[in-house]
Amino acid sequence: MKPQITIGHDAGGAPVAFDIEELLATRLLVQGNSGSGKSHLLRRLLEESAQMVQQVVIDPEGDFVTLAEPFGHVVIDGAAYSPAEVETLARRIRAHRASVVLALEGLEVEQQIRCAAQFITALFDAPREHWYPALVVVDEAQMFAPAVAGEIAEDTRRMTLSAMTNLMCRGRKRGLAGIVATQRLAKLAKNVAAEASNFLMGRTFLDIDMVRAADLLGMERRQAERIRELERGHFLALGPAITRRPVAVKIGPVKSGSVARKDGLIPLPSAAPDEMEALLLDELAGEAAKAAPPPPPPPAPKPEQLEASIARQEADRAPAAEASDTNGEAGEQIQAVIAEMARDEGSTFQSASALYQGFLVRCRQQRLVGPLPDMVAFRRRFAIASAGLERLDEPVRARILQLGEAVPDDVLAPYLAVAAAAAEGLSAPDDEELSRVYGSNSPGRIRRLLDHMERLGLIVVRQDFGGGRTLIVPGIEAVSGEPR
């Protein structure tokens, strides 16, 4: 007896069967506009075959995580793991024949694509002894196998197209049966769609999609209008695993997942116009100020400007050094005042002008005489004091300060903190330390700061899928002596 499942019923009420063994050899393409019932169809297919074959679901919207409780699927949060960990998980999934859902809703679109591509490639590259049969379901496949270049980076597009092509073209010999679902055939790469031999075509309205769907189903183009008239949850089916001639199928019920929201009218709020106006306008400015994005970091200076700045700083340091030699005790006292200010809680969150005014007041209170550093020199000395370099050995600290001489004032403190962490062999300072030295608790500002420093060539940022990052500082070696 063949391992078959019932996917639904035809117009006469007769069950429409799906041959799972044939599906493993011939693959499946599902197409339908948003709201046509694609996710419902995939869920029905997965539920009915859950006890027959291993299943791996690439889920960009978190629609299939509810398979875990009733059917034993393991949910893997793609945002929680690094690229190396995702690849290792894929290899273990093949070795242990686990049914899993790779949930990607916690990632941005390009990170979703890269994570899924590396995951599918690792499934494909598993050792021969682990080539067990498995269904690999990719929802929203137009994201992972786009027909044309979009807003994603070119290297990301090449990576994901390679992974999806391997899955659909060469996956059969490795036991992998690709099931891809897309909203529009025109957006799906043709070399991916062409490898499927089974089709379930749902409602679509654009002429180009209707014509392609009719061609795949072997229908005449004048019959393509039939696809536009399909109801939600109804599909035209064709393929060796289903039927040898096109048949209309109403997909059967599912056991997992939430009940879909029914479209329709709902009563409007009963609030009076003045009450509604108050709800909309009260404290609007304050809430908008909280939600407003922080200003972007300043643009990177041109190379000639950076060289001129370095030259000016070197010229300014010569008389400053002579002054410190003639008044060494006062210089030490001034440095002690700056260090004390840097240790004050919340000092780095103040503006440069406020800090400098506080510095002058403290100097007057301690009756310090002699030349005091101007605001520019104070700002750099305060940045150095707040970076916490005193925990490092003298040669390491001297090397970091030497590299910091060419760093602009506005990013000097975070640069020194990152360099100190790199010298200690850490991947990056913790978020709390980076926020303290930069004077901002906004994650968005910290991300833009790191992007700005990378554009200046001061650091190299390597981002993990889950949001973790490694910061590399050129010219800094870890304490162990290994180059960074």
TrEMBL record:
The alphabetical list of record keywords is: ATP-binding, Nucleotide-binding
| SMART domains membership | AAA (SM00382)
Q: Which GO terms describe its molecular function?
A: ATP binding
UniProt entry tagged with the keyword Aminoacyl-tRNA synthetase: no
Q: Where is the AAA+ ATPase domain?
A: 24-214
SUPFAM superfamilies on file: P-loop containing nucleoside triphosphate hydrolases (SSF52540)
Q: Extract the ranges annotated as region (Disordered).
A: 310-330
Record-given protein name:
ATP-binding protein
> From which organism does this entry originate?
Pelagerythrobacter aerophilus
